[in-house]
């Protein structure tokens, strides 16, 4: 006779994020109108929408950098956020720029530099890095954090094809290790099994208000 244990149910994926009905105004403008989404371990969500649709605003709200006007963001673990600014001090070397992230994080600096092809630039002042190298340096901070949830706002800006491939490999490894990410991008990413969440432009709402 068969017992229930002969038919094990698949493991329930670990939930990393719940966004419930988040609404955000910037000034008088409605930017996010009741956005809901969830993210589980292993997920990669591509956040799409036209310029000004609120992609960066949503990532900042999820990160806690701004409060939603209504709705709720529930994070079940640490997160790392990559914004538009690379935030490197020009006079410090690459290693010095990443020292604090290394200290606060749980991952190895040599491993992160290697994965992003930055090892040969370790002792170079950040002001001498190219824009693509700076972008990879900023991404290294995300890797160093050891946070399971990554919020990546246009991570590929300034990257060449080989660097985008490297980033794709790093993201795949993170997912395989139980991490997850939300990525805004205007270019295709080398990622498998992504989910997509499209934010509509609410510009018409503003013009309605002003009329
Ligand atoms: N500091 C601010 N004060 C007021 N409004 C702002 C501010 N920053 C952004 N906005 C407005 O919020 C809206 C959403 O901006 P956001 O940067 O989130 O869009 P986005 O989808 O990330 O755009 P893009 O694709 O151009 O990066 C835009 O209409 C923008 O003008």
TrEMBL record:
Entry keyword set: ATP-binding, Cytochrome c-type biogenesis, Membrane, Nucleotide-binding, Translocase, Transport
MF terms (GO), sorted A to Z: ATP binding; ATP hydrolysis activity; transmembrane transporter activity
Lineage: Bacteria, Pseudomonadati, Pseudomonadota, Alphaproteobacteria, Acetobacterales
Gene: ccmA2
Pfam families on file: ABC_tran
Coiled-coil stretches: none
GO terms for biological process, alphabetical: cytochrome complex assembly
Protein name (Swiss-Prot/TrEMBL): Heme exporter protein A2
UniProt-listed PROSITE patterns: ABC_TRANSPORTER_1 (PS00211), ABC_TRANSPORTER_2 (PS50893)
Start and end residues of each ABC transporter domain: 17-209
